[in-house]
Amino acid sequence: MSVRRHIERLLPELRAYAYSISDRREDGDDLVQDAVARALRAEAPPRSLVELKPWMFRTIRNLHTDELRKRRVRREYLSRETRLSSELSGHPEHERDISVREAFETLSSEMQEILTLIDILGLKYDEAAKVIDVPRGTVMSRVSRARCALRERVAGTDSDQRSIT
């Protein structure tokens, strides 16, 4: 019997297990879906039902553990950022830093990437060009456009912001 058929037979048990370890039914459904996708993509999944069953349960458990870990890291990050934000509020230079960060997050991913490479990580134009596989001139124009967009957002003159106010 194929792995797909074995998975179909195991679905009720997989769902029951996923629901039992999840806080919400939707999270359990996501765990089962992710585990099934992994099993179907695996190069050499167990072929027999006897071997596949614990393998699938372990996959669901590992996915659940990974998700809990991600949530914990996000909570800790948010808590730290909130604490830092409240500690720094009231200082003009810190408020400016926060507004720059917030403006940076509104940029397109392409603009964030180029500013990160050049302005944050300090790569040279040639190095950044190799990283993103574009000509040096393209890097220079992207940096220019991204810096301009960032300045406009920080100053509140961005066209998106003008239409809001």
TrEMBL record:
Keywords: Sigma factor, Transcription, Transcription regulation. Residues 100-147 form the RNA polymerase sigma factor 70 region 4 type domain. InterPro entries: RNA_pol_sigma-70-like, RNA_pol_sigma-70_dom, RNA_pol_sigma70_r2, RNA_pol_sigma70_r4_t2, RNA_pol_sigma_r2, RNA_pol_sigma_r3/r4-like, WH-like_DNA-bd_sf. This is RNA polymerase sigma factor. PANTHER family: RNA POLYMERASE ECF-TYPE SIGMA FACTO, RNA POLYMERASE SIGMA FACTOR RFAY-RELATED. It comes from Paracoccus albicereus. The keyword Transcription regulation applies. Belongs to the sigma-70 factor family. ECF subfamily. It holds the Pfam family Sigma70_r2. It comes from the Bacteria. The keyword Transcription applies. Residues 7-72 form the RNA polymerase sigma-70 region domain.
